[in-house]
DNA sequence: TTAAACATGTTAACCGATTGACATAGGTAC
DNA sequence: GTACCTATGTCAATCGGTTAACATGTTTAA
């Protein structure tokens, strides 16, 4: 495997000059630049990132810790993160914590050992080791973490509120809020609060709340619980589920009970992942601007690396996407 | 940030001894081991993986290149890969190629630069740069790649065959095979072959074939095409779709046309991802042993690193999972 | 008693870059 | 003619580990 030294020899230049070309430092003539490029191509040179990272005290990798990746919300997030990272010449070092605090800590340590350029944390568990002074920025994604250097989230309260408004607008009077995925911590709690409080501001609306538990976040199976839930909550004519996956399963559960959607019961999901367009009827849902959120995370890390200032907290707007699960008429 | 030298000083030992403890080489007494551990803990020492990788000529990262990650099949795969990798003390360096050959090449180069321990390729495009003598093993996942060091796949022919047998057993006579995702290359072609050839071996079975095109693999939207498809193929009473996502969308399309499932049309998907349990009815599908396939990939890389022999090609068995989309009675 | 095996130390080269200090020129501007 | 910019070279330290060679003891076993 060719090294910088080989390239320098091939191009008839010194390592210093070649390094300058690679890192765009100091003065370099076009001619030199070209002959370096020629030599690199000829020798099929690939810079050794390990050596590079060692000498600059930072790698070009961004650590990403998610609780699950098979969950469509997180797979969409990771795809978006990868895409944004690629634009900025970063790579993704991916860790799946399964929501287990021990793994999270272990993974944070792995990021430290790899001297990542930044760490994006979207964990379920609260207890996480000290995240201060790690030498790189830690971005908390959809999660309040006072130890983190920055936070990126969407307006969950508004999301819950929009869902309530829509159901009420569609004529529902007996509402139900089902929360689930990793809702121990902040974000989805706030969704529920937004939903419940908005309902309370309207006359003649009854509203109940149900919390799904989950063994593993990668399980994605809620049917039994949803059956129990619907048994306990008869007469409901509008449901807000805190994720599209839950909402999608709910459609099946409701149908099995002979309830038509949206005629008898209207359903709103959350996230706007592909699942919401896969069901029949398609799901009305709250769109999270995942791409923008991902871009924001990467941008924070880029800025931190460049020594620029970056926002401590970014809250992005959500919006309602109307589809068949709340709408009588098909109007696509 | 503490270094090995600091740890050695703190423990009153030499760097050589500390390194021996870290790498389990040579003779070390329990006492020494403990005092090293104590010192590491006290200084909160995290070994610098960059330096480690540089001196051993290899990192502990495994490069993974997938065409998409929002597609549930690949997100399940990546989750499994991460899990297996974690057991073997590897980390995942994730790349999403979007099926674009230029990105693939770029990502292969990134893996070389990062001196990965191995590379797992599951790409859609055929043309990929030379993969020989990269200094690490390249494992082709569900893809025939003569340049790769090893291949891991499932028995796609058998999968197609099982689907045909099931539909015929359920009484279908007018079959349709819908293929899609990345089927330019080998694996899904073989699924179709297995399906078609098995049909041909039965009397009185008519069978047609339809290929979905796709702009982007992360799109996951086939509805329009599926409508066209069903317009062109009237009278079909059994469909084999080459992925659960396509099958799930098909359910909606069929329902919109007033066809009941499974009474009027039976549907079989492929992959056995969570989507197949999310639809109503749930999807009968061909289960791919993704976890085992992932484990096999990681194991090949581990063996290669240890200088052990490993299989050049591994073909894993698939099996049929019966659910509501082919079965009249509910028997869960 | 003597040879292994055990346990640690010292030293230094090496992995493949980056980077700064300092030197050397040719060209241009005033 | 002096000063400055441009362009490159040389040299060596540095990043933080790994590892081999060699030395020096202490135990243990035959």
Write the SSE topology.
Two copies of one chain form a homodimer.
Chain A: H1 4-11, H2 15-23, H3 30-43, H4 49-55, E1 61-66, H5 72-87, E2 91-96, H6 101-113, E3 118-121, E4 138-141, E5 150-154, H7 156-169, E6 174-179, H8 186-200, E7 206-211, H9 223-232, E8 238-241, H10 244-256, E9 266-271, E10 284-287, H11 290-306, E11 313-316, E12 319-321
Parallel strand pairs in A: 1-2, 1-3, 3-4, 4-5, 5-11, 6-7, 6-8, 8-9, 9-10
Antiparallel strand pairs in A: 10-12
Chain A binds a DNA duplex (30 and 30 nucleotides) through helix 2 and helix 4.
Description:
The structure is a homodimer of 332-residue chains. With 332 residues, the first copy, chain A, is α/β, with parallel strands linked by helices. Chain A folds into three domains: 44 residues, 434 Repressor (Amino-terminal Domain) (Orthogonal Bundle); 126 residues, 3-Layer(aba) Sandwich (Rossmann fold); 133 residues, Response regulator (Rossmann fold). Chain A has eleven helices and twelve strands. In chain A, the strands form two sheets. The first copy, chain A, has a six-stranded parallel beta sheet, with helices on both faces. Chain A has a six-stranded mixed beta sheet with strand order 7-6-8-9-10-12, sandwiched between helices. In chain A, helix 8 links the parallel strand 6 and strand 7. Chain A is elongated and about 80 Å long. The N and C termini of chain A lie far apart (57 Å). The relative contact order of chain A is 0.12. The interface between A and B is large, with 56 and 56 residues. Strand 2 of chain A pairs antiparallel with strand 2 of chain B, so a sheet runs across the interface. Chain A binds a DNA duplex (30 and 30 nucleotides) through helix 2 and helix 4.
């Amino acid at each position: 495997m060719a090294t910088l030294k080989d390239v320098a020899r091939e191009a008839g230049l010194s390592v210093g000059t070649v390094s300058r070309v690679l890192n765009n430092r100091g003065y370099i003539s076009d001619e030199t630049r070209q002959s370096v490029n020629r030599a690199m191509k000829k020798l099929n040179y690939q810079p050794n990132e390990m050596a590079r990272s060692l000498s600059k005290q930072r790698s070009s990798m961004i650590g990403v810790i998610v609780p699950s990746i098979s969950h469509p919300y997180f797979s969409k997030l990771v795809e978006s993160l990868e895409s944004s990272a690629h634009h900025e010449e970063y790579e993704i070092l991916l860790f799946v914590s399964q929501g287990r605090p021990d793994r999270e800590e272990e993974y944070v340590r792995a990021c430290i050992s790899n001297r990542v350029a930044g760490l994006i944390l979207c964990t379920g568990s609260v207890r996480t080791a000290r995240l201060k002074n790690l030498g790189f920025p830690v971005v908390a994604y959809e999660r309040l973490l006072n130890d983190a250097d920055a936070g990126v989230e969407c307006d969950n309260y508004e999301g819950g509120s929009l869902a309530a408004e829509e159901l009420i607008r569609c004529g529902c009077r007996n509402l139900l809020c089902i929360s689930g995925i990793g809702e121990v911590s902040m974000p989805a709690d706030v969704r529920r609060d937004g939903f419940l409080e908005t309902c309370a501001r309207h006359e003649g609306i009854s509203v109940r709340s149900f919390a799904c538990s989950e063994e593993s976040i990668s399980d994605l199976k809620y049917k039994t619980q949803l059956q129990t839930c619907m048994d306990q909550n008869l007469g409901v004519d509008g449901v807000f589920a805190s994720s599209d996956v839950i909402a999608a399963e709910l459609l099946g559960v409701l149908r099995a009970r002979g309830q038509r959607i949206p005629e008898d019961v209207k359903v709103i999901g959350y996230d706007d992942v592909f699942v919401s367009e896969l069901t029949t009827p398609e799901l009305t849902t709250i769109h999270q601007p995942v791409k923008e959120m991902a871009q924001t995370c990467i941008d924070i890390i880029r800025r931190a690396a460049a020594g620029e200032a970056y926002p401590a907290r970014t809250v992005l707007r959500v919006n309602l996407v109307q589809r068949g699960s709340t709408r009588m008429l098909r109007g696509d």
